[in-house]
Amino acid sequence: MDRRRFLVQSGLGAATVLAGTVGCQHSRPRGAAAPKIAFNTANLVARFTHYRFELSHWGDQHQKTLAATDEAAWRDICQEIAGAGFKAVEIWEAHAAPEAMDVARGRVWRRILEEHGLQPIGYAGGLRRETLQICTWLGIPHIDGGLRDLTPTQATELCREFGIRFNLENHPEKNAAEILAKIGGGNEWLGVCIDTGWLGTQGASAAEVIKTCGRLVRHTHIKDVKSAGKHETCLLGDGVVNVASAMAALREIGYGGWYSWEDEPEDRNPFDSALRNRLWIERQLRRVGY
User: Fold this and answer.
1) The domain 3-13+34-287: what is its CATH number?
2) Is 90 exceeded by the pLDDT of residue 89?
3) What's the pLDDT score for residue 289?
4) Around Cβ 245, how many Cβ atoms within 10 Å?
């Protein structure tokens, strides 16, 4: 099963809870902290196969990761993420899956995150009751991924029940209209997670999609790809996406949320470029005035 079919069937992709401020945190108030950069653990899709895999076998990698991620493996992952200078993580579903997670394990996962100074800021996965429950255990404010078979009305009701938001991560969509249609135009609970890499794969302008979606952009996956028509990831700034212009567009719409670095390389260890890409994002944020 290739990744796109797996995403459709499982809902995989695919900032603040209601008690606090609105999740997208637009229009950053004076004196507030600058936008943060997170490490998306989907980067480690090939960790347990020596950083070699084929994108068409994403579902197999998900299952291998689920089976291999015990307490020791999760601690090692968090240690490496912190070692690359990240202070926040977006947790891929395979690293905290309903098939393996319960409230006791959730406490352990959260304690390990705290031990390494990592804040869980998103859950990269499918929207369902079980994943929403995991978000409550781990203190995660939103899910970023696929709707599975839920209608926008059903998704809204489910998110409201748990107090957790959902952001649709674009994959096959080629423009803003296609993205917004899937969430019924969006609302307080349903927003958009812009994946710059997949927009590049689809030959779309990430900057234009961001401007059209506007304030419904509540999360981002910052990624670059080598060429349109394929999803071969590369160093930020080296591909066809024009990530710099996308980040400028985010600034233009008043985005103040997280920048989740995502790179699922098929032939290399993402930690080899994690520091470089984190610093690249930081430079772009300075350039656009954050």
Assistant:
1) 3.20.20.150
2) yes
3) 85
4) 17
